[in-house]
Every structure is written in C-alpha cells, then in structure tokens.
C-alpha cells in the first residue's frame, strides 16, 4: 500500500505532511479539503491510506471512517487532548507534536499491521476457542457486545504490540 491521500482543511498542514512523506516511498496521490471530496476521490480505490486531522469542514475522522470501504485505511494526526474523542478503535491515531521520522515510522507501522493481517496464517481450533473464551469473558464481566470485545482485544494488541491470540490469553490469564 503506497497510495496515500491527505485530507486536511488547511493547505499549510497538508503541505507539511506531504513534505515529511517526500522520499519515504509513500507518494501522496492528492490532497482533499472536505469529507465529500475525500470520499469521491477514494471511491474507486481498493487500497489507500488516508491521513487526516481530527476534523474536516463536513465531518470528523469517525464520520469519514464510517463511510470507507474495505481496503481503505485511516490514520489521524491529532492533538493529544483530541485522541479520546475518536471512538473508532480501527483508526490509527498519531498525536502531535509530529516530526518526519515519527510520521514515517507511524505509517510504516500501520501499513505493516495491515500487511500482516492479509498474510497471517489461519488460527488453529485451539486458538479460535481461546479467542471466543476471551470475548465471552469480556462480554460477561464488562457487559460488552461481541464486537466491542473483539475491538477491545484488537486495540489492546495494537497498543502493546502483542499478537491478537497472546492478548486473548493474557485476558484469560493462561
């Protein structure tokens, strides 16, 4: 995934991000300034990484995520105090202040997570049972839906850098 679309309401911000990405192997396809423009731009792209701030004039990062298709991934660059305002845990969040190396490392990490998901081996029946049990535990003890439990394990895995199955085992203390 080397196609990147930037979405920022201010040209100066987009230009700074674009300059940071120059020479990193991630070419910026275009810059969009609204949610509507962004969705039109990426509507025919199977795989794309969208990098945006917290908010565009016509929608937040969560609103944009809700309208994306499979294969379209979203990364948000926000002030630290805005991070807790992003409710969708599948949005990769990078907090300010930002420098070139941090941005490139974050993009590489995010793209690496996506690639690993595509190529990961099938889980064994034992691993599937552990994951089901971990979700059931979270659903029962924390009154989560199955989707919330899955996202909780997924987010915890991403935050700690652990494999999904290892996080499920940790939840069950096995």
Automatic annotation (TrEMBL):
The ANTAR domain, residue ranges: 111-172
Residues in a coiled coil are none
Q: Which residues cross the membrane?
A: none
In its UniProt record, a GO molecular function of this protein is: RNA binding
Q: What is this protein called?
A: ANTAR domain-containing protein
The organism that produces this protein has a lineage beginning with: Bacteria, Bacillati, Bacillota, Clostridia, Eubacteriales
């Amino acid at each position: 995934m080397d196609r990147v679309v930037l979405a920022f309401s201010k040209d100066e911000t987009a230009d700074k991000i674009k300059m940071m990405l120059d020479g990193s192997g991630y070419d910026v396809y275009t810059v969009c300034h609204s949610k509507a423009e962004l969705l039109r731009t990426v509507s025919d792209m199977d795989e794309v990484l969208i990098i945006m701030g917290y908010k565009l004039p016509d929608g937040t990062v969560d609103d944009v995520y809700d309208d994306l298709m499979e294969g379209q991934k979203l990364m948000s660059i926000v002030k630290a105090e805005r991070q807790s305002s992003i409710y969708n845990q599948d949005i990769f969040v990078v907090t300010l202040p930002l420098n070139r190396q941090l941005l490139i490392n974050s993009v590489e990490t995010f793209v690496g997570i996506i690639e690993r998901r595509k190529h990961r081996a099938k889980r064994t029946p034992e691993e599937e049972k552990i994951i089901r049990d971990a979700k059931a535990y979270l659903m029962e003890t924390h009154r989560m839906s199955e989707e919330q439990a899955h996202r909780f394990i997924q987010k915890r895995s991403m935050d700690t850098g652990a494999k999904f199955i290892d996080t499920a085992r940790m939840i069950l203390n096995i």
